[in-house]
Amino acid sequence: VEIHKLEAIIEAILFTMGESVEVEKIAAAIGHDAKTTKKLIHNLMDKYEKLKARLKELGSVLVSFSGGIDSTFLLTAAVEVLGDNACAVTGADESFPERELEFTRDYCREKGIRHYIVRTDPMKYEGCRNNTVKRCYYCKKSLFAQELKLADKIGVSYVAEGSNADDSSDY
């Protein structure tokens, strides 16, 4: 699925959380007929309900929040289910654009979500410095280690991040 089609599907999910849907408009946006689109929306809503049930089981969660579509979706779901027991953390280093950091701050402020920033230095880690194929793995590993420490410090039971099946081959 092309990125713009995926975004349209996710927008459809977010739209269906509280309002009726004009299926024909969504179908046109993703290039399917209305019947197929209804099935897609139903399937995705089932998955969304499973996600919410899993988040509820966790009790509290710190969402690794980059401001991208995946982590924004996950954070939105976590806040919907857990309220104040959901919070966000953004890992920022010298390569993380300031405008994206500002977006995460503004988003959380506007939504009333507790937000933490973890300053990272990937160059401290040999796996990142060597710029190998696995550099993203090493960078995320170091970031998640810091996020786990933060979660423990603030009394949050779990850390979650918004990778999806499509990301599994990235590193």
Biggest sheet record: 4 strands, parallel
Number of strands: 4
SSE topology string:
HHHEHEHEHHE
Overall pLDDT:
84
Give the radius of gyration. Answer: 18 Å
How much of the sequence lies in strands comes to 5-15%
* Number of DSSP helical runs: 7
Shape: globular
Separation, N- and C-terminal Cα atoms: 20 Å
Percent of residues in helices comes to 55-70%
Q: What structural category arises from helix and sheet content? A: alpha/beta
Record the strand order, biggest sheet.
3-2-1-4
Oligomer: single chain
Uncertain runs: none
Structure notes:
- There is one protein chain.
- With 171 residues, this protein is of the alpha/beta class.
- The chain has 7 helices and 4 strands; from the N terminus they run αααβαβαβααβ.
- The chain has helices at residues 3-16, 23-30, 34-58, 69-82, 98-111, 126-129, 135-154, and strands at residues 61-64, 86-92, 115-119, 158-161.
- It has a 4-stranded parallel β-sheet, with helices on both faces.
- Helix 2 (23-30) packs across helix 3 (34-58) and helix 3 (34-58) packs across helix 4 (69-82).
- The longest helix has 25 residues, at 34-58.
- It is globular and about 50 Å long.
- The mean pLDDT is 84.
Which SSEs are present, and which pair or pack?
Layout: H1 3-16, H2 23-30, H3 34-58, E1 61-64, H4 69-82, E2 86-92, H5 98-111, E3 115-119, H6 126-129, H7 135-154, E4 158-161
Parallel strand pairs: 1-2, 1-4, 2-3
Main features:
171 residues; alpha/beta; four-stranded parallel sheet; 4 strands; 58% helix; 12% strand
